[in-house]
């Protein structure tokens, strides 16, 4: 069994996992007009981290997110973890998505024990929304090779002129002319993956599945949700459970109808018995599309829901799709 603990989370609605998830549960949104305009010269709405000035752009904005997520690690947790012994897996946007360069993002940044972040990057997964789930798979391998635990750091910001222009060009950005689109956001999350709990709050990953989809949001391939349905099937089989036994679901769906249809198809193709209710929680309702950080945010919210007793059941399913590309992923988690 793999255990995941969220040790730090910075989002547009909070600077900790507890604060962010409380805001998500209450439905507190952080959308505002950004200093960018769409192709119709109208302001773009998005969700940004207030602690980072709008003038901080590109690589510097990502670096500030990294700095904030390290600064907001709770002292007790920071003192308890073996930082120097844990390999680091970095999760960022898809390689094909335009955006800031990552070079120099970790210069001068350090973990709570004083060890340098720069040079500790054991693995780099550039797969956008599915990065966190691919990182869990990689962490499992590292744990099997003897690592006491692994760090997964997911950082992304869609609030970048190059990213926004690319989304707008592919008609994927919610604008004054396009209602079927996403709202850009940003976030950073740091989690510890281990075989045994290393912090007071944690979530157990019972099953994990990765898939690939040929029909994406930017092509004309026939759409049957094969990638996400297959990933979910694999996760359910590994967890030795059935879809109807899952009490609730998380998703990184951020406003596009394609994504909602994919989510529904993946559920239908794996459901063998009926269930009265199976609610879906969408972090993007409050903080927009957070890209590579979306997967760990789902895990953090599941951890908080189980730990604080407001989860509607014992099992949750997590879903992730890199809408413009092939990557699909799913996980089954419990307290």
Walk me through what this model shows:
By secondary structure, the chain is of the alpha/beta class. The protein has 2 domains: 2-194, Thiolase/Chalcone synthase (Peroxisomal Thiolase, Chain A, domain 1); 203-334, Peroxisomal Thiolase, Chain A, domain 1 (3-Layer(aba) Sandwich), CATH 3.40.47.10. Helices cover 29% and strands 24% of the residues. The protein has 9 helices and 12 strands. It has helices at residues 17-26, 58-71, 75-80, 131-144, 161-169, 226-239, 257-268, 284-287, 294-307, and strands spanning 2-10, 31-37, 43-47, 88-92, 121-126, 150-157, 186-194, 203-212, 248-251, 280-281, 315-321, 327-334. The protein has a 10-stranded mixed β-sheet, with helices on both faces. The longest helix is centred in the N-terminal third of the chain and has 14 residues, at 58-71. It is globular, with a radius of gyration of 18 Å.
């Amino acid at each position: 069994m793999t255990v995941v603990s969220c040790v730090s989370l910075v989002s547009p609605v909070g600077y900790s996992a507890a604060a962010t998830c409380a805001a998500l549960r209450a439905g507190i949104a952080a959308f505002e007009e950004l200093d960018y305009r769409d192709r119709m010269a109208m302001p773009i709405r998005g969700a940004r981290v207030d602690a980072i000035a709008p003038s901080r752009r590109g690589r510097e904005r990502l670096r500030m997110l990294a700095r904030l997520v390290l600064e907001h690690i709770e002292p007790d947790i920071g003192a308890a973890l073996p930082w120097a012994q844990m390999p680091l897996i970095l999760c960022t946007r898809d390689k094909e998505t335009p955006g800031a360069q990552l070079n120099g993002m970790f210069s001068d940044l350090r973990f709570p024990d004083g060890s340098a972040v720069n040079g500790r990057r054991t693995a780099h997964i550039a797969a956008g929304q599915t990065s966190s789930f691919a990182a869990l798979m990689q962490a499992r391998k590292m744990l099997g090779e003897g690592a006491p635990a692994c760090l997964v750091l997911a950082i992304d910001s869609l609030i970048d002129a190059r990213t926004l222009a690319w989304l707008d060009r592919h008609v994927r950005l919610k604008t004054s002319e396009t209602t079927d689109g996403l709202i850009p956001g940003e976030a950073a999350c740091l989690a510890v993956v281990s075989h045994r709990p290393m912090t007071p709050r944690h979530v157990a990953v019972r099953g994990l599945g990765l898939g690939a989809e040929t029909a994406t949001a930017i092509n004309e391939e026939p759409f049957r949700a094969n990638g996400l349905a297959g990933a979910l099937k694999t996760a359910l089989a590994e967890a030795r459970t059935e879809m109807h036994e899952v009490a609730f679901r998380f998703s990184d769906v951020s406003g596009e109808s394609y994504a909602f249809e994919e989510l529904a198809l993946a559920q239908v193709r794996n459901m063998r018995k009926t269930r009265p209710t199976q609610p879906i929680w969408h972090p993007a309702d409050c903080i927009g599309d957070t890209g590579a950080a979306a997967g760990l945010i789902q895990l953090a919210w599941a951890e908080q829901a189980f730990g604080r007793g407001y989860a509607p059941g014992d099992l949750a399913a997590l879903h992730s799709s890199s809408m413009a590309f092939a990557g699909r992923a799913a996980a089954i988690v419990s307290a």
